[in-house]
Amino acid sequence: MAQRGRKKGSDGELSRALLLRIAADEFAEHGYYETKISNIVKKANVTQPTFYLYFKSKEAIFQELEELFRKKLACLTIDSRLEEGLDEQALPERIAGGLIGVFHFFTEHPSLGKIGFYLSPSAADTKAAMAAQIEDNLLSEVEAGYFHQNVDMSIVANGLVGMIDQLTVAKLWTGKNTADELAKEIVAIVLNGLKK
Amino acid sequence: MAQRGRKKGSDGELSRALLLRIAADEFAEHGYYETKISNIVKKANVTQPTFYLYFKSKEAIFQELEELFRKKLACLTIDSRLEEGLDEQALPERIAGGLIGVFHFFTEHPSLGKIGFYLSPSAADTKAAMAAQIEDNLLSEVEAGYFHQNVDMSIVANGLVGMIDQLTVAKLWTGKNTADELAKEIVAIVLNGLKK
Amino acid sequence: MAQRGRKKGSDGELSRALLLRIAADEFAEHGYYETKISNIVKKANVTQPTFYLYFKSKEAIFQELEELFRKKLACLTIDSRLEEGLDEQALPERIAGGLIGVFHFFTEHPSLGKIGFYLSPSAADTKAAMAAQIEDNLLSEVEAGYFHQNVDMSIVANGLVGMIDQLTVAKLWTGKNTADELAKEIVAIVLNGLKK
Amino acid sequence: MAQRGRKKGSDGELSRALLLRIAADEFAEHGYYETKISNIVKKANVTQPTFYLYFKSKEAIFQELEELFRKKLACLTIDSRLEEGLDEQALPERIAGGLIGVFHFFTEHPSLGKIGFYLSPSAADTKAAMAAQIEDNLLSEVEAGYFHQNVDMSIVANGLVGMIDQLTVAKLWTGKNTADELAKEIVAIVLNGLKK
DNA sequence: GATGAATGAGCGTTCATTCAT
DNA sequence: GATGAATGAACGCTCATTCAT
Fold this sequence. Notes:
Largest sheet of chain A: none
Distance between the termini of chain A: 70 Å
Strand content of chain A: under 5%
Order of helices and strands of chain A: HHHHHHHHH
Structural class of chain A: mainly alpha
Largest interface: A-B, 44 and 45 residues
CATH superfamily of the largest domain in chain A: Tetracycline Repressor, domain 2
CATH architecture of the largest domain in chain A: Orthogonal Bundle
Helix content of chain A: over 70%
CATH topology of the largest domain in chain A: Tetracycline Repressor, domain 2
Oligomer: homotetramer
CATH class of the largest domain in chain A: Mainly Alpha
Radius of gyration of chain A: 20 Å
């Protein structure tokens, strides 16, 4: 009954969600500055004032999307910490599991991923936070005896973030590799190295 | 008499170089869109038309900087290929040498680095090109017997690019690590892995 | 209540029409290049962005005015074709009628006339089109037996266009002659010639 | 001896004449506003300051060209007055002679013609002056008994100017008719009219 | 006579944002 | 909740013109 007679896109929350989704795609495709509010509202079939009913400003909607990304990513990163008591056999697979989660997220939300990881001025911060979390994980894992301590774990963590970053752009989003493949390879490299 | 050597065009080239340098810094600091020509010329102590005496447009000067970056980077990447006949002892150091070159470049030209690697819409292409070059190097090195072949070298190459990328931002430009340290750590990780 | 009839878009159309009218006058008075958008909007009491709400560009509004002129002129020219079965007595008056129509149009819309006939880069085309239409009329009229065929009707047609052109500028718009006088004189000249 | 070692276009008067000629063509082709001094000097192989050595301003060079046109045209118009004592036989040919002179001038100096007759803001004045001169001629010719007096000679004169104008653009410069053809047709029309 | 370098002045256009309804 | 209309504030760019040499 609350919905009777509604034109498409004119329910409050619906409009908001629609705008948010369209904005994400537009930002991802054209970048922040080349994305025009006028375009977003056109695609959402609403007028410009309607946009400002739901979002304070262009920057605000962008930051909202950013925040969305950051939260989801943080969850994934935290979840990827290895539990104690794993046998050596299972180690690689467990590590890969965490990476797969991240890659899956990037596969399913490419727009959000582009915004939070590449477009946003605070992408560096986001990556730093991710690295910090990973470092944390690694340190526990060293303590748990999984890894040796001959390397600076902060550097390893940032290295991993960088690998995820570049492989997402160059391999995942281009369709050249799947999340599983990438995860497996990263594990292979970082765990055993290249040396014969 | 001190100026006798300056023939025609000399002052012009100076102005041009000045604008180019300032533009690089401005773009690096504020990004493409928030960089205003009016600001660049103000800092260069010239008027706006002077800018257009030397550059066709805002986009043109940006692309010129991009190109500058790409060329220097390509040189460095090519130079980092390992020559044949290295003994196993020298291997890590030689690999690190190539990385150090890249990190030094980023240290000495941070503005150019930001432009070409982070700001430019074609940054992804640049990184892809770098990865391709590194992959090339790696494949020769596999053939030369330096590395085993259990991993996809394209993924390794992209991973390395990602590591360089993230470590530059998070460690090099923040002053937390030197080029040498980063290079050594990367070598340690990628050559031997983390496994105990 | 007086305004009840004005539904959505009504004020917008008003602004648009106002801008169009003012622009016509400005273009006519100062020419294309010396006409500034800033001046048009000032006279219309709106801001510059409002202008761009209704017109794509300065060139676009100019072309719209041009087109307006061309269409009205084409109607008038077509309407001035003589119907068949006129007796010789009525001929001069009928011909004059067509000319009067054109001159009236130029009297009532001098700005449009200046734009379409003098300022526009395509004025030559417009005149050529008018001449072609007149030639068409003349040829039917020759066939109908009104005129002899000793002259090239394309030249006559262009000659008439030229006369209309110059007399409009030199006589009509200066107030030295009325539309009726000019029409009558043209008829007298072109029908009978000057020879004693 | 005065000429030894000169580079092309660097003799004072030569440069001036060259600039004048190129400017005429540029103005004729692109109109006043779309003609850029930078372009003129480029085509003349001189620098911008050199231009200002010879001409006070863009407007000044344009006006100089205008003046050139006006003077030559005035001569031609004056020369076309019919001398007394012509027999009726020779009349059409003599009148045509004057017109041919004008058309020849337009054929040989199209750039100048475009400038003085179409581009210049004072084109209307120039045409008015020409019309006045023609009217003068016509009045003497009426007095000499060549023409009847049933028409307003000022209107005839302006009509002739208009015909010349339009036929020059539409027939002469397009190559559709020669000066002689146009002159003959105009005479035929204006002397005898179209009526059967 | 000629030039390399530079500029004052200005214009068209864009876009996020807001009022009045 | 939604809209038609309007705007403030910039910004990139152009071009005729002029120094200093």
